[in-house]
């Protein structure tokens, strides 16, 4: 070894191992050269994957005099060369976690002098008492050959219970993983792998399920058939629970958590994504740190990441400016440390949004560049007193509050500021002394200004030091406004009390348990109870009749939920009589919680009686109106019958046509009155239903025409008043009967379509036929026929807009009017 002590470490294979599992974290160049594996391949292996440990020989005892090594291992390089090594190791922290620094010493020469090396089937024998991993050796039929003390400690079975026992492997493996375990083993054997690692759930002798990591070495005979399996096992249940706990804590954390590898975010928790305004899947495996960094700070962020990835520093904590998805600049504080993740360098850390803190600090620092600026900027009076109570320093607030200049305070005591007769100076001195002793003091005081004005103060005295001297730092606040406000509050409370007591309507005040605290005079007069006799009782149990208990509880729930409730019902008085009342429940909400409620009761018994009388009278009028509609319909039917008799008694075809037209017009009106007296609503009818019945009546009356007319109706459900229904019915009667008589001359068939629609309050009535068309000289403004005159008059009665359109073939009549309220 040279004088710097470096050649020894260059000539010996060195491993950095995970403390408990012995997973390889890193190796030196000598290990790479001796074993033939690359560093990346080493980082995917466990030290046990390199070979099989041997029993100690006499040579080992000689080598072990310093107590630093006690095991010999048979190791095999990647190209199959076997050699004996012996480890010395030391424990230290590496990248924030405990690891073993292991030096592999080549002891081939010593071992070969003492024992013949077994070439075919080497067996890994360990000192179970001090080896951290459980060891199990199986033959090719999965019968246990060797069962270490650590295996007994881990799984609970003794060696004599398992060695030689068949199918014991099946007993250990959890049912839900059995197939996957054997599939992995079969795959390794088919590939002639020398070793493989897996995680398996094991059921112990005590039926406890634990998760274990298995490092399996597969030994083959000269025919390349599986000879035995050597397994080293460690319990990673706690590690798995920690991983699950980390994920659970990370997912619910109020702090952003991230993992960066290969220059990209491989993981972020919900809070991290929320801070930058993204969804998690928009960041993970898609965005780089620079994508979330305000461009002027990109070099800072990338340099700090590089330092950790290159191993210059283990961890880093600093602030930088980020960029949200919306383009807003945010201030963040980030902590990150370098780790190995899946065998590769990575950085894991946390991130806090400090935007508000940053803004607050900037404002704060701008306003308090120096202690004196802060001291003098506070409007409250601040003075520093020594043990004798003398003023050492006062701020500008004290000067302005009391009216003395700064120098007038220095060296004086509180006596110069006290209001005579209103303060006990001895008690003031006690407060000062307690503050010097470390007890914060808070009390009210009365001061006097230089002009003699007396005013109240709120005083807080704290211990402190001033140029190395123990002092009391006192802050005094003028609370004159608060005193005035409190006085005003007392006046308001008295006004409210009088309003509560003298209100003309009954009011009850209940606490959060719905127990009565007080009732006003009107409540006592209405329900017969005084406050003293019902205080503490449940209001619902006191005045709610049996039939309304459930409703009353629902009202209470609504009010205590923070909503005002209104209800009309009945309530019991002290003498057992029932009152009809309107009930208003008003919550009293403090800091977002309902702490009490007011129940306001309006006696409406007299009004209820009047309403019942009015309903009775209204019912009588409705019956009368229904009877009127019925009689009008009957009278119109009599008129129709008289016209029918007149038709039989006349020989004039022209007179017959006129009489039958009059019959149809009267029938259209009579049908409306029939619908009205059949409805519950005596002022409106469903015009779509009326329309269908009117068309059926017209069809029956027009059978004598001899033309087969198909009438299609497309009507929306619309309610019309009698004032609008009668004109619409008469217009329809005129249009359809005229179409029958004049539109289908010399034709056996014809078609008429009736459309009734509503758009908001605008009604459209349209009648279209496919006949010969309306004469060109037909004009609604200058009607020549009685039918057209009647249509125009009825349209004007509806205040509607009407027109005839030659639709070629046929005629379309369109009428639009507003629905009557």
What secondary-structure arrangement, pairings included, does this model have?
Blueprint: H1 7-11, E1 14-18, E2 24-27, H2 29-35, H3 39-42, E3 51-54, H4 58-63, E4 72-76, E5 82-94, E6 97-106, H5 108-114, E7 134-139, E8 144-147, H6 149-155, H7 159-162, H8 168-172, H9 178-190, E9 195-203, E10 209-220, E11 226-235, H10 237-252, E12 256-261, E13 264-268, H11 270-276, H12 280-283, H13 298-309, E14 315-323, E15 329-341, E16 344-353, H14 355-367, H15 371-377, E17 381-385, E18 391-394, H16 396-402, H17 406-409, H18 425-436, E19 441-448, E20 454-466, E21 469-478, H19 480-502, E22 507-511, E23 516-519, H20 521-527, H21 531-534, H22 539-543, H23 549-560, E24 565-572, E25 578-590, E26 593-603, H24 605-648, H25 653-678, E27 684-686, H26 687-701, E28 708-715, E29 719-721, H27 722-743, E30 749-759, E31 762-769, H28 786-797, E32 801-806, E33 811-818
Parallel strand pairs: 28-30
Antiparallel strand pairs: 1-2, 1-6, 3-4, 4-5, 5-6, 7-8, 7-11, 9-10, 10-11, 12-13, 12-16, 14-15, 15-16, 17-18, 17-21, 19-20, 20-21, 22-23, 22-26, 24-25, 25-26, 27-29, 30-31, 31-33, 32-33
Helix pairs in contact: 24-25, 25-26, 25-27, 26-27, 27-28
Description:
The structure is a single chain. This protein is flat. It has 6 domains: 1-119, Beta-Lactamase (2-Layer Sandwich), CATH 3.30.450.20; 129-246, Beta-Lactamase; 253-360, PAS domain (Beta-Lactamase); 387-478, PAS domain (Beta-Lactamase, 2-Layer Sandwich), CATH 3.30.450.20; 485-603, PAS domain (Beta-Lactamase, 2-Layer Sandwich); 616-818, Histidine kinase-like ATPase, C-terminal domain (Heat Shock Protein 90), CATH 3.30.565. A 6-stranded antiparallel sheet has the order 2-1-6-5-4-3. Strands 8-7-11-10-9 form a 5-stranded antiparallel sheet, with helices on both faces. Strands 13-12-16-15-14 form a 5-stranded antiparallel sheet, sandwiched between helices. A hairpin with a 5-residue loop joins strand 10 (209-220) and strand 11 (226-235). The chain is built from 28 helices and 33 strands. Mean pLDDT is 80; it is low at 1-6, 53-70 and 114-130.
